[in-house]
């Protein structure tokens, strides 16, 4: 707790805790309003596999409908940053989830930037990654890229590509990511989480990724680990997330240590602290064992 930390892989939508989910389900009187926090935790925030996790993620996102909902989550993150001694964070926000539901993803971003820029005074720097979802397609990615470019001087540093890496090919997003890189934004790509090392190669070669979300499957490919090392491409490793989704079921043999010893810039992250009920300090403890 005494170590000042950075967290580079943290989804805003994944920061919905059982308590926040309970409040939102009562606010919107959804089918889940009958569940108390323990039941939310046991029944909904408990995953058979990665796809079951994505399904819960979708349900949680259906409960985020207006700026106030997102600000409630950001408020929770503010206390999380203080408690975890986090001084720098890159938060991943996905506007296309709102757009696809006919809602305004831009006004949510404006509200979030206003709130996050206030933390500067407390010595906490927040930057934003606007995520595109792999299974949604290029149309939404273009809209996300344009929004990122509009706010690139106000705290948005990158666009990302999350979601199901076994769905659409990286090629679908090649032009969007080229455009984004021309606009001095970075490219953050989830790859090599549940799919193989080839996905990491494509993230680098097709999308020009500067940093990889997860990337643990790179451990199987020595040419790739050499490349990541030589080009100082960071991997955001998320030990508990990998265990909870089944991407890498046992924390004690997660390749974090191997990748670190090879000289790749690896970082520890929670991915979704609300949905996995885990903190960054706990991730450090788990890595230290
Ligand atoms: N992988 C893919 N999509 C996601 C994740 C993840 O770990 N977390 C939130 N959306
Ligand atoms: Zn993620």
Beta-strand percentage range: 15-25%
Radius of gyration: 18 Å
Could you tell me the mean pLDDT?
A: 98
Lateral strand order in the biggest sheet = 1-2-3-4-5-6-7-8
Derived from helix and strand composition plus strand pairing, the structural class reads alpha/beta
N-to-C order of helices and strands: EHHHHEHHEHEHEHEHEHHEHH
Spans of at least 5 consecutive residues with low confidence:
none
The main sheet comes to: 8 strands, parallel
Number of strands: 8
How many H/I helical runs? 14
Shape: globular
Report on the architecture of this protein.
The protein has 289 residues and is of the alpha/beta class. The chain is built from 14 helices and eight strands. The protein has helices spanning 18-27, 37-44, 50-61, 67-84, 95-100, 105-117, 138-150, 174-182, 197-205, 222-230, 239-245, 256-261, 273-276, 280-288, and strands spanning 5-11, 86-93, 125-133, 156-162, 186-191, 211-214, 234-237, 266-268. An eight-stranded parallel β-sheet has the order 1-2-3-4-5-6-7-8. Helix 10 links the parallel strand 6 and strand 7. Helix 4 runs parallel beside helix 6 and helix 7 (138-150) packs parallel to helix 8. The radius of gyration is 18 Å and the shape is globular. The model has no long low-confidence stretch (mean pLDDT 98). The structure holds hypoxanthine and zinc ion (ZN). Residues 11, 14, 57, 162-163, 190, 193, 241, 271-272 line the site of hypoxanthine.
């Amino acid at each position: 707790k005494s170590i000042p930390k950075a967290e580079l892989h943290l989804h805003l939508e994944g920061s919905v805790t059982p308590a926040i989910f309970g409040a939102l389900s009562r606010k919107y009187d959804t089918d889940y309003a009958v569940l108390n926090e323990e039941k939310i935790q046991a029944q909904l925030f408990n995953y058979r596999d990665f796809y079951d996790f994505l399904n819960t993620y979708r349900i949680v996102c259906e409960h985020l409908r207006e700026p106030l909902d997102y600000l409630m989550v950001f408020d929770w993150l503010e206390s999380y940053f203080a408690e975890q001694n986090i001084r720098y964070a890159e938060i991943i926000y996905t506007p296309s989830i709102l757009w696809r539901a006919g809602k305004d993803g831009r006004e949510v971003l404006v509200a979030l930037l206003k709130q996050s820029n206030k933390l500067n005074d407390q010595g906490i720097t927040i930057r934003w990654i606007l995520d595109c979802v792999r299974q949604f397609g290029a149309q939404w990615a273009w809209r996300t890229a344009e929004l990122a470019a509009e706010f690139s001087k106000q705290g948005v540093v990158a666009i990302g590509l999350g979601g199901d890496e076994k769905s659409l090919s990286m090629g679908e997003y090649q032009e969007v990511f080229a455009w984004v890189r021309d606009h001095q934004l970075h490219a953050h790509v989830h790859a090599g989480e549940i799919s193989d090392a080839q996905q990491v190669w494509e993230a680098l070669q097709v999308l020009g990724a500067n940093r990889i979300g997860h990337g643990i499957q790179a451990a199987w490919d020595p040419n790739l680990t050499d490349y990541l090392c030589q080009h100082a491409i960071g991997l955001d490793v998320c030990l508990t997330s990998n265990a909870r989704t089944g991407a890498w079921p046992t924390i004690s043999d997660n390749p974090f240590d191997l990748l670190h010893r090879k000289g790749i810039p690896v970082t520890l992250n929670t991915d979704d602290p609300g949905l996995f009920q885990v903190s960054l300090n706990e991730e450090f403890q788990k890595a230290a064992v």
